[in-house]
Specification:
heterotetramer; A alpha+beta; B mainly alpha; C mainly alpha; D alpha/beta; A: alpha+beta; 6 strands; 24% helix; C: mainly alpha; Four Helix Bundle (Hemerythrin (Met), subunit A); disordered C terminus
Chain lengths: 199, 328, 172, 825
């Protein structure tokens, strides 16, 4: 017998033995009975339901509902229109067009979320490299008109930093923008002088 | 001729009465089920439409009536449209042979409190019940959807399997009563209900009845988390509603049959016969809801094993034992 | 013509029509449904002739059990859609000839003995009478037949046996 | 053929194969940055490390530097090799900026893929990063040096492969910098390949900058239609706008690369001025109504003036389906013969080339690279078909001498022998080479036709260049490249004879024609009975032809005699134009119908070697969202109909115009059964051997040599002359301003100095252009680019002879000296 076969035999289930003892039947009936007793007891408990329009509880900060576009601590738009959220979106409800502004910053010329399609999965927030797109706990945004569920950038943009209060992508990216040139960002050396061989 | 017309009129009244009660009760059983299930799960259940959500069935009816009746493009149209009616009609027809009270005398004429007293009433019930399988199987097939087809096949297999157990469990009762007529069976329980002498048959019948009406823990044909909604996945609007009416009427009829075979039918102290029957039906229905709230769904092989390897042998054994006892 | 004969003819019409449809449908499920309708009509006919037991058995056994199994197989077979077309002559000509022959024989039999109602005597029997008749007078043949069924049952069980038992099933 | 084992799989590969290639043949992609199939190995990036388990050299080795050996055992997933690759990635990422979200390479970045797949998802290095300043490299390429990983692919491609010198490398160690000596536009007309070849985002496509991610683009394989080579490209479109064109690997055609004309020539499809609506008498209407109007009017003309009074003109830029539709509609309605060409010479030249090109001689671009001696007759590869110049460079890099016989000041990115001779002398020159090159005895023994041809060759008036003769004698794989633009049928035929003669001598000789337009070959095949507009023009002027249907053709704008064609068009009762460009003809049309570009509906193109290439549309087309949206967000109203989406392929629209039913539309393109639709297959052509060695080509022409006459040739340049790409705003900066090239000797006669204005009186009027005096061109020749800003249409023909006194120095008139003839785009 080779080792594989031995292993195989070890895995073989024990032959069926339906009525091993009377006590097992007793146990089964007891378990069944306990189940019925438990559910029956529930009949007389006060329901734990929180009735929504009458009572609105505060949702945790990380609840996933209405999506916003936040700003960095300097008050600039965080979104660089990198298309990662639209790529991550399983229902393809995010669309945008990236562009370059006068300061050399990449931004969204237009940014659109179709909340009629959104499933609030939060993958966009997870994909966002700049903490721009964030889900908020505001879940009450139901509309009668389907087209009004399409939110444009001006509807999405808020004037705070949301959950991430500190991150500022362009301070780290190493991209030349209006206020900082190459080598002036966080943890960067001055640009190399290629005309010199001195290190 | 006048007598014939009067008889016919009485028949119509009885049919109307039975159907009215059945359908009204079906609607409110849905409400009761949702409500009770809610409470069993420490929720409220429907509580928005009217006080205690009592108008919920009406709201549901309006909703289902006004919804679009969608027929899938690839469906077999005729059969697709016919299938829900088969389910609803066979379920309702079964109620025709259930006696709901003692024979009363009206203007000097004996009027039995049953729509029709067939001498093969029990067989009629099984005939209708076996025709009900077509609704499920054809509905599932005609939808031309894999979920529906699987649901339909499962439903058909389950229903014909449990019909056997259902039928065999009743044989001792027939042996005791000596008749296939439901009226006679009720009359045979004048002194004591058969549940006292046939507890095994009672258990087998109740379990099989639940499987027959495709209720949890035997709702494999419509197991939501495997098959969408099973054989009625593709149905919408009132056709979907007909499947539901069928199911709840079926539930009531099976409750009535349990009452007739084991609980003495309409017999009971103090209250009038029909009321007793109604109470028994409702109690059986509530117990079924309770079971739904407690037990998890079986796996399909467990379902089949239970039917073929436990219930049927037990029913056969019960027949032999009862036969022996009766003979002695 | 009284109500009964009117009902009789109506039912006969339904049975004939549905049987004809059942044998001409190319769609197997439709054919099964028409056959069930035909069985149901026959059952009603039995009932009309005063044989409720036969009627119930007809529905339970033929419509309720056998045809359901047919339907089962048909539903699981992926039969390619055939166009509704007329059968080739070599199929329907012999069938038509045989059918015609049968009709002639039946007509002759009925016309020579118009009062041939003896067969119906046993059919109209009450369930208990029928049971006593079968099990007391013909118990041996009944037992032989049921033994035959038992053999078939055992055979099916043997054929359908799980060969590598204990391995593939997740729970034993 | 050594056999080696890679990851427990055995493979047999030719001697000299690198391990990385052998692994690739097995389907194992070893990570690489510096290695590239077209560029070879340098071992700069160290990321292709594998473990050699058995062989002469064991241990971790660079798979791109290691030749395979018999019995070698390689493991690509050995922990040691994996660790090495992981470390390499981490080093390379040390200074890589944190800018993937704003980097256009993101999504198709090799470095990104390798970093993620190498398991270096999180940075451990927390120190300061080295930074570089970027350079302005022109309007097409964005430079971002911070992202560089020093793989040297760019300079190897730029300097070695394509032969330009203005991009280089400087610095040492960590400070290596890839750039130009000073900021400025890259000179290389193949510079766009830097974008494809850079494994990270140092060089990115500037016109497509920040347009979108590659994964969002509707991408589809396509074929470049900016010259006759038909290079394979990949088109990426989004929001109804073509965003970028990338090179697509095609083994037999362009290899890995394309030229900048093909890469950035596409803006014509996105132009705001592109006509999207049908017009009847200048009024916009629906396509259906315009079709009905055109059909009724055509019917009316045919009824009143006879069906022969209607003519239909296609062009060599249209797909084969369209050309077949033109031929089909003419035949079905009994109209005049279909026209595919404006000039008779073009028709005859291409017809001659197509009829003489046989399966025995035809060369693909790839095969041209393998030639060991190349003779170019009457062609300017860089101007007419840029990728051919790159192929010649590869041939030269393998050691093949390249001889160019052309009157133009030909420039090529390689060192070559230019023999500047007048275009009329070209046949004589080829004849002399036929006579001198190769050994006559072998040729004689070969074939009686060949023998009689060589016997009848007259003694050449000019002896052939001795270097060329010497090179030809030793060559085993000579290639003949012949242009069909400025040459004539005699030279084209002689080029084929020359190649066939060398073939008869037992060499693997090949013939490579350059043709006008993307589908010149197709036009020659589609309309064997076709005429040219030049031949038909007298009938228009005589009032015989009363209606003209121009399909993707622009007779008004491109006919070389502007005055004559304008007058002729005025005589027409009806001009129907189907096009996707706002050409002069489209503006003048009575009925205009919009059509679709290759990016939208695709089509079939046959390149100059007869390779049938089927293109499917990459996107549906319509007015780009950026134009309908007006910069803000696009409109929210969702409609079934795409704005501007009414246009259909010209061939389809054409069948709707036809009063008679056009039959057999599905059989217009019949392909050989084993057609490989991606890379194309060569069309099956009739055997041309009967047409070769025609006795009339042995005779001396003697046309040249008349000192009183000058030859004016209108030529193509790399940028600015081809109809479609000259509309590209990003290429216009690269266009050389329209000038007339002259030999110093000719300039001295007038006299003229560089930059002076020259007035030329030609058949179609006079035109004034600044002069550029160059040494390396033929005497008695004026070379004028068919630039859209030069009024070359006044010449009267694309090749003509004028009296010497037709040219004179002109005085500058105000600022705008070159007269613009065609209206601005």
């Amino acid at each position: 017998m080779n080792p594989d076969e031995r292993h195989y035999r070890k895995l073989k289930p024990v032959p069926p033995q339906r009525f091993r003892t009377i006590s097992e039947i007793g146990e089964a009936l007891n378990a069944l009975g306990q189940g019925f007793v438990t559910t029956f007891r529930h009949l007389f408990r006060k329901p734990i339901t929180e009735e929504y329009p009458e009572y609105k509880r505060t949702l945790p900060e990380r609840s996933r509902a209405r999506i916003v576009l936040t700003r960095d601590p300097d008050g600039n738009e965080r979104c660089v229109a990198c298309y990662l959220c639209s790529a991550a979106c399983p229902v393809s409800c995010i669309s945008m067009q990236s562009a370059e502004d006068d300061n050399g910053r990449r931004y969204a010329r237009w940014f659109r979320i179709n909340f009629g399609r959104c499933i609030y999965c939060g993958l966009c927030e997870e994909a966002c490299p700049t903490s721009a797109i964030q889900l908020t706990p505001q879940f009450e945004h139901v509309k009668r008109e389907i087209l009004s569920m399409v939110y444009e950038k001006e509807d999405l943009l808020v004037d705070h930093s949301g959950k991430d209060k500190t991150y500022n992508f362009y301070r780290w990216a190493g991209i030349r923008t209006g206020d900082r040139d190459k080598g002036e960002h966080e943890r960067e050396d001055k640009p190399v002088n290629v005309r010199s061989n001195m290190p | 001729m006048i007598a014939w017309i009067a008889g016919f009129a009485v028949l119509l009244v009885k049919i109307g009465l039975v159907l009215g009660v059945l359908l009204f009760l079906a609607a409110y059983l849905v409400w009761a089920e949702r409500k009770l299930l809610g409470r069993l799960q420490i929720r409220y259940g429907p509580n928005r439409a009217g006080i205690f959500g009592l108008l919920q069935p009406i709201a549901d009816a309006i909703k289902m009536m006004t919804k679009e009746d969608i027929v899938p493009e690839a469906a077999d149209r005729t059969i697709f449209l016919l299938a829900p009616a088969v389910v609803a009609v066979t379920a309702m027809l079964m109620a025709a042979v259930v006696p709901f009270g003692p024979t009363i005398t009206l203007w000097g004429r004996q009027v039995p409190m049953v729509v029709t007293d067939l001498n093969v009433g029990l067989l009629f019930v099984f005939a209708m019940s076996s025709l009900g399988v077509y609704g499920v199987a054809l509905g599932g097939w005609a939808s031309n959807s894999k979920f529906a087809l699987l649901g339909g096949i499962r439903g058909a297999a389950q229903m014909i399997s449990y019909e056997l157990a259902l039928g065999l469990s009743i044989v001792p009762v027939v042996m005791l009563a000596g008749s296939l007529s439901l009226v006679d069976i009720v009359d045979a329980q004048a002194s004591y209900p058969f549940i006292l002498v046939q507890p095994v048959a009672f258990v087998i019948f109740v379990v099989s009845a639940m499987a027959e009406s495709k209720r949890i823990p035997f709702d494999l044909p419509e197991a939501e988390n495997e098959l969408g909604a099973g054989y009625h996945t593709e149905y919408s609007g009132m056709r979907f509603g007909m499947f539901f009416i069928g199911e709840y009427v079926h539930m009531q009829v099976l409750g009535a049959l349990i009452a007739v075979f084991f609980l003495g039918g309409w017999r009971g102290p103090l209250l009038p016969g029909p009321l007793w029957l109604l109470i028994k039906i409702i109690v059986v229905a509530l117990v079924m809801i309770w079971v739904r709230g407690t037990l998890p769904r079986l796996r399909y092989d467990q379902l089949m094993a239970l039917g073929w390897k436990v219930l049927i042998p037990a029913a056969l054994a019960n027949i032999v034992i009862t036969g022996a006892v009766v003979l002695l | 013509m009284n109500l009964y004969s009117a009902l009789f003819y109506l039912l006969s019409l339904v049975i004939l029509a549905s049987t004809a449809l059942a044998i001409t449908r190319r769609n197997l499920v439709h054919a099964v449904v028409y056959l069930v309708l035909s069985f149901f009509g026959s059952a009603l006919l039995f009932y009309l002739l005063g044989a409720p037991l036969l009627a119930a058995l007809e529905v339970i056994i033929y419509a309720g059990a056998i045809m359901i199994l047919f339907l089962f197989i048909v539903m699981m077979l992926n039969v390619e859609r055939l166009e509704e077309r007329f059968f080739p002559a070599r199929q329907w000509v012999p069938a038509a000839v045989l059918g015609l022959l049968l009709a002639v024989v039946g007509l002759l039999a009925v016309s020579t003995q118009p009062g041939g109602d003896r067969l119906l005597k046993t059919a109209v029997a009450a369930p208990s009478a029928f049971g006593s008749y079968v099990f007391q007078r013909h118990w041996l043949s009944v037992e032989i037949v049921s033994l035959l069924l038992l053999i078939a049952l055992a055979g099916v069980l043997f054929l359908g046996r799980d060969n590598d038992k204990g391995v593939s099933e997740e729970d034993r | 053929m050594p056999t080696l084992t890679i990851d427990n799989r055995r493979i047999e590969v030719p001697e000299g194969t690198k391990v990385i290639e052998a692994a690739e043949a097995l389907g194992i992609m070893i990570p690489r940055f510096c290695y590239h199939r077209a560029l070879g190995s340098v071992g700069a990036c160290r990321v292709c490390a594998v473990k050699i388990v058995d062989g002469t050299r064991k241990g971790v080795q660079m798979s791109c530097m290691l030749d395979v050996e018999e019995g070698m055992v390689v493991s690509t997933d050995d922990p040691e090799a994996v660790a090495m690759r992981r470390h390499v990635i981490e080093w390379l990422m040390l200074h890589h900026p944190h800018d993937c979200p704003v980097c256009d390479e993101g999504g198709h970045c090799l470095l990104q893929d390798m970093t993620v797949s190498g398991g270096h998802g999180l940075r451990r290095y927390l120190g300061n990063k080295r930074t570089h300043l970027d350079q302005y490299l022109g309007p097409r390429i964005q430079h971002e040096m911070n992202r560089c990983i020093q793989c040297y692919r760019c300079v190897r491609y730029y300097r070695e492969f394509s032969g330009y010198r203005d991009l280089g490398v400087t610095g040492i160690g960590n400070r290596v910098y890839f750039g130009r000596e000073r900021e400025g536009t890259l000179e290389n007309p193949f510079s766009g390949n830097l974008i494809d070849i850079c494994p990270t985002g140092v060089f990115t496509d500037k016109p497509a900058r920040y347009f979108g991610r590659r994964w969002d683009l509707q991408r589809g394989p396509s074929v470049c239609i900016h010259c006759s080579l038909g290079c394979s490209v990949t088109v990426g479109a989004r929001y109804r706008e073509v965003a970028r064109v990338e090179a697509r690997y095609a083994k037999a055609v362009n290899g890995h690369f394309i030229c900048d004309r093909g890469r950035w020539g596409f803006p014509y499809t996105n132009e705001a001025s592109r006509p999207r609506a049908a017009r009847v008498d200048g009024e916009a209407t629906t396509v259906g109504e315009a079709c009905a109007a055109a059909r009724n009017r055509l019917l009316h003309v045919a009824e009143t003036a006879g069906s022969e009074a209607v003519a239909c003109l296609g062009s060599e830029r249209a797909g084969l389906e369209t050309l077949k539709a033109v031929a089909g509609i003419c035949r079905a309605n009994g109209w005049a013969d279909p026209l595919f060409w404006l000039e008779r010479r073009a028709r005859e030249n291409v017809a001659a080339a197509v009829s003489l090109l046989g399966d025995d001689l035809v060369l693909s671009l790839r095969e041209l690279e393998a030639a060991d001696c190349v003779l170019v007759f009457g062609a300017d590869p860089l101007g007419e078909a840029p990728m051919a110049a790159l192929a010649l460079r590869q041939a030269r890099r393998q050691g093949a001498p390249v001889f160019v016989f052309d009157p133009r000041p030909v420039e090529l990115p390689l060192d070559f022998h230019h023999v500047p001779l007048a275009i009329e002398d070209l046949p004589e020159c080829i004849r002399s080479l036929v006579g001198a090159a190769g050994d006559r005895e072998t040729a004689r023994g070969a074939d009686p036709t060949v023998r009689s041809f060589t016997d009848q060759l007259a003694e050449p008036s000019v002896p052939p260049p001795p270097e060329a003769v010497a090179a030809l004698r030793t060559s085993r794989r000579p290639a003949v490249v012949c242009g069909t633009d400025v040459t004539d049928a005699a030279a084209i035929g002689l080029a084929a004879d020359f190649a066939a003669l060398m073939k008869a001598q037992g060499r693997r000789a090949g013939l490579f024609y350059l043709m006008p337009g993307a589908n010149g070959f197709g036009a020659a095949l589609a309309g064997t009975e076709a005429a040219s507009l030049e031949e038909l023009l007298p009938r228009i002027e005589g009032g015989e032809i009363r209606a003209l249907v121009a399909v993707e053709a622009d007779p008004l704008g491109l006919y070389p005699d502007r005055g004559r064609i304008e007058a002729a068009m005025r005589k027409l009762d009806l001009l129907v134009v189907l096009d996707y460009l706002d050409t002069d003809s489209a503006a003048a049309a009575d009925v205009f119908l919009p059509s679709t570009t290759v990016f939208e509906t695709g089509g079939t193109w046959i390149n100059q070697e007869g390779r049938i290439q089927i293109v499917r549309g990459a996107h549906r087309g319509g007015i780009p969202v950026s134009q309908t949206g007006g910069g803000g967000h696009p409109p929210r109203v969702f409609m079934e109909e795409v704005p501007g989406g009414q246009a259909a392929a010209s061939g389809q629209t054409l069948t709707r115009l036809s009063p008679a039913e056009v039959k057999g539309a599905s059989e217009w393109v019949r392909l050989p059964p084993d057609t490989d639709k991606q890379s194309g297959t060569r069309a099956v052509l009739p055997d041309p051997s009967a047409l070769r060695f025609a006795p009339e080509r042995t005779a001396l022409s003697g046309a040249a040599g008349d000192e009183a006459m000058l030859t004016v040739i209108a030529v193509d340049r790399t940028f600015g002359t081809e109809v479609l790409s000259s509309r590209s705003p990003w290429l216009s900066a690269e266009e050389t301003a329209p000038t007339v090239w002259m030999h110093p000797e000719e300039a001295g006669r007038v006299p003229l100095s560089d930059g002076d204005l020259l007035e030329i009186d030609a058949g179609g009027g006079s035109l004034v252009l600044p002069v550029k005096i160059v040494e390396n061109m033929a005497r008695r020749t004026l070379v004028i680019p068919r630039h859209r800003d030069a009024a070359w249409q006044r010449l009267g023909a694309t090749r003509l002879r004028i009296e010497r006194d037709c040219i004179r120095k002109a005085q500058p008139v105000g600022e705008n000296a070159p007269v613009k003839e065609s209206p601005p785009r």
